[in-house]
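Changelog note: in this version the structure field was regenerated for every chain. One regenerated record is shown below for reference.
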Amino acid sequence: MTISAPIDRLSNSRAQDFAIPEAEAKAAWEADRQHLLHPWTNFATFKERGSFIVSGARGVHVYDTAGRPFLDGMAGLWCVNLGYGREDIVEAMAEQARRMPYFTPFVDIGSLPAAELATEIARVAPGDLNHVFFTCGGSTANDSAVRLIHFYHALRGKKEKRRILVQMDSYHGSTYLTHSMSGRHTARSPLLNFETEMVQTLRSPNTYRRPDGMDEAGFLDLLISEMEARIAELGADTIAAFFAEPLMGAGGVLVPPKGYHARVQAVCRKNDILYVSDEVVTGFGRLGHFYASTAAFGIEPDIIISAKGITSGYQPLGAVIYSDRMQAVFNAAPEEAWFTNGFTYSGHPVVCAAGLATLRAMEAEDICGHVRETGPKFETALKSLLDIDIVGDVRGSHFMMCVEAVADPKTKELFAPKVDVGHRIADHAHELGLIARSIGHQIVLSPPLVFTEEHIAETAATLREALLRTRADLKSEGLMG
């Protein structure tokens, strides 16, 4: 199957439409540098380099202020799954804005788009996950899931079940609580505070960096035994839920050992611990299914968290999708038991219209089928980079991949942090016309799901050249043998 976004679904903008006069471009760059605080800013470098200003986007390309195209290897930020310039999504948003842009969703007031989208999400979600709580993104969805879980246990007379189990290298968001739930070392700024009692962290299921001499099956046994020991230490009656991404995204697209999720879920069920599958990244097609938990990993979680691709990035939306079993407890709650959590923009009508248009387009164009067919070709193309001696690992699944750079592929030794090898590779890729995301020493690629085989070949060839240029730089600077 070869897919491309139908031309009549794309806007008629052209590359030259995105170019702006050089003076205006410089003014925009300076205004951004002087006045805008970006997420995850490094102030030491930003004050000199400023931002890469994106002027427009169409299909699978973004354009700078000179009108130069860049192949988007990040789908925005794991989210623009259907590509840019989709008139069907834009028109659905505009039509809803004309009809009714907003009204409060609180207590017992609803809107047509929110009710319809919740119904459609329940239809494509696995098992008995038939209930949806809308938020403004993945962070607020994970945060709200914790609230909902605490509410659930309290209604069952188990209010002491408060603790949350997470993994090292995980990422669940940027609210105070969800940042505390994220186990990435690089995200743990010593200048910020984190919740350390309620949130308890387990070993990362990073198969590539398992203990020396241990096979994958032995590593899985180690992870499970450590989890069981931690539960025994803390007391199962104090643990509310376990949160995990099917594949860890921002941690470096980490692939757990085969069978990991099923065995962890069995431990959770045995100890009355809810299993939460954070599919903010993997959901809505990235692994070839609307949700990967059941279809790809064989589990039926108690809760799935969804965001990013749920609207293809055209509007901000998050969703907590939870089970009939949990809803039965809520339905039996006494009158005074209010779930006092929510947001002004929960179930925003225009946002939900974008979600509905996205879901319909995915089904009409069989986007998941395209990913299942084309994703393995993306994996194969990137794994060809393993012949470069600064590439230690290429891992992931379908359109969610990571290339890990190392100083020695045999020992897996890393370059010193000051070498900044990830940024070097990403900068070279940018020079060559590819946007790739560096996370420490890793390069993550999560392109729009409408990538074709031609886009895949271009991505792999460009990244190869970026890696070779980086290797040459390191050699010339005496940073590798």
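Spot check on this record: Residues 453-476 form the longest helix (24 residues). The chain is about 40% helix and 15% strand.
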